# Entry
Amino acid sequence: METFARPNVYPGARTLPAEWYTSPEVFAEEQERIFSCEWLCVGREEPLTRPGDFFTTERAGESLIVTRDADAKVRAFYNVCRHRGTRLCSEASGHFAGSIQCPYHAWTYGLDGELKIARNMLEVPGFDRMEYPLKEAAVALWEGFIFINLKSSFDSAQDDNRFERVFAPLLGRFSRWNVAKLKTARSIAYEVACNWKLVFLNYSECYHCPLVHPQLEKLSPSDSGRNDLSEGPFLGGYSELRERGTSLTMSGRSSRKPAGSVAGEDLNRAYYYTIFPSLLLSLHPDYVMAHYCRPLAADRTEVVCAWLFDPGAMAEPGFDPSDVTEFWDLTNRQDWHVNGLTQLGLGSRAYSPGPYANAEGLLSAFDRHYLPIMGA
Ligand code: FES
Ligand SMILES: [Fe+2]
# Structure
């Protein structure tokens, strides 16, 4: 892999003015300009085992039903009946037995979104059920993750926003981990008292690690970080493990085999990437960790952290992921604590933009990507 030395920050690079992290107007603008337009990760394919399995998710103020149709294709439908607009599905997850029925007047849709049954509507002159399929968002699958896009439709596969074009820097990049085949062993949902961008920024530097994460620092020195993606929507790189053959776990050890075909220098590294604007992805010798991020308000963010392992390792007798999940639950909580403190300070009249350190080059890269999207 191409590796670059850590870039120094641009001269004069500073944190953004407070309103970018605190203002409800900026939050609303982001919902329009970012979360209604970008590819958003809504989780893994795994819960959708059979046709009709579904989960619902809320993005940019829209409720969506993510399901698998009879041809096993993953679809994301707006959760809105084409009759009088009623929300179709109120459950977080479940299984549709072959169709999606509205709870109001029983209009019934196929798993492909087509309106199949509309009671008594044949009596209505000019009514054609084919004109009322469920509306849908574009879906892309990458490494077992489901991405949706509220702006792209399936017809606009050629446009600049198509997944393959936007995600070109990442396609094939993590094949050594065989991420598509990995399975979620555990996940923990957090509500973090800060703006979603602080979660991304915090993930992009280890300047804070010696103080905030003594346990992590012991296993992986914070000054060993190197960036290999340092511009654009995807940012990150790796840190070295202090000792070869160790892993970021409570004990610092792991008896699991490496994931996929991970070998060589990757056995000695932990990779961390921010995938704008909804996913943080971290790849370790024997597991992969994903943080799914969803802004709830200017000062609140939902983060679901999931740990993915090789199904072979999970099938071993005595498989126990808790050495990994406890380590990262501790590390996550340490991060959420300081992120909450930062959010508090940003709300003060005493706050003014402060200078980024050289170890915070990715933070100014994030800002350089983010601001133009916001028209700034
Ligand atoms: S609103 Fe859905 S069937 Fe009437
Ligand atoms: Fe941290």
Q: What stands out?
A: Residues 1-6 have pLDDT under 50 and may be disordered.
